[in-house]
């Protein structure tokens, strides 16, 4: 009986992951449409790139365990917000808020939660704008609301977060003193990147005084 149950469960899981992949496609298309429209109107692209990922089964399992839930379809759907993840890399800080606002205004998108780590950076220096949204995906048997996490950040914020992510998950960095030094240096880098992001925004604003930008 076990193989049959295993195969059936695998089918459920694959079908659930297919739904998350479809949600990612819908959100990505919305973002591409906004970027396209913007490039025609203002002759520039607010979005530098879009990345997406589906959380791995092990990562889903670990997160559910951490939260005290079993690995079931219902718990995945109800307890996790970031099985479908979309990362939007913008050129300037104000592009982040423009993209977030334009997405939030679309009437098929429901905002579940916003975390603004740009206005309120984390103590380690992490900055990014996080939106948990729900979007209906249309299948043969009707529509299903699917949750996704959208992280919107500048190229600088993404550069920092990617390296910090590698550091956090790296276990062989030497003794604690070295680790503390690396963490402190990363926080300094975050400050430098914030200053550069702000300077680039100022330059954009200045150019905007001369021409539409
Ligand atoms: P991974 O490997 O990137 O997927 P929840 O939204 O309820 O699931 P939480 O922690 O309240 O959980 O959400 P939050 O704070 O919005 O952070 C979720 C994601 O933001 C993380 O996912 C990271 O991708 C990113 N993030 C948050 N804090 C940091 C940070 O200090 N450094 C870096 N590099 N990324 C961060 P995961 O699942 O932790 O990791």
TrEMBL record:
It comes from the Bacteria. CDD domains: NT_Rel-Spo_like (cd05399). InterPro entries: GTP_Pyrophosphokinase, NT_sf, RelA_SpoT. GO terms for biological process: guanosine tetraphosphate biosynthetic process. It holds the Pfam family RelA_SpoT. Pathway: Purine metabolism; ppGpp biosynthesis; ppGpp from GTP: step 1/2. SUPFAM superfamilies: Nucleotidyltransferase (SSF81301). Residues 52-175 form the RelA/SpoT domain. This is RelA/SpoT domain protein.
């Amino acid at each position: 009986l076990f193989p049959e149950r295993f195969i059936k469960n695998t089918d459920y899981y694959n079908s659930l992951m297919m739904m998350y992949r479809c949600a990612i496609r819908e959100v990505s298309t919305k973002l591409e449409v906004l970027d396209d429209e913007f490039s025609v109107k203002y002759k520039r692209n607010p979005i530098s790139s879009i990345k997406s990922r589906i959380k791995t089964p092990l990562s889903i399992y670990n997160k559910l365990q951490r939260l005290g839930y079993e690995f079931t379809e219902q718990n995945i759907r109800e307890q996790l917000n970031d099985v479908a993840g979309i990362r939007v890399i913008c050129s300037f800080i104000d592009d982040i808020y423009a993209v977030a606002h334009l997405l939030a205004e679309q009437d098929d998108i429901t905002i579940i939660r916003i975390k603004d780590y740009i206005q309120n950076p984390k103590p380690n220096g992490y900055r990014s704008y996080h939106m948990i949204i729900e979007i209906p995906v249309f299948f043969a048997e009707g529509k299903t609301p699917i949750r996704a996490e959208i992280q919107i950040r500048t190229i600088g914020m993404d550069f920092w977060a990617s390296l910090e992510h590698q550091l956090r998950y790296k276990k062989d960095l030497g003794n604690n003193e070295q680790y503390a030094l690396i963490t402190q240096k990363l926080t300094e880098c975050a400050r430098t990147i914030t200053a550069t992001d702000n300077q680039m925004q100022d330059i954009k604003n200045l150019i905007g005084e001369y021409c539409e930008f």
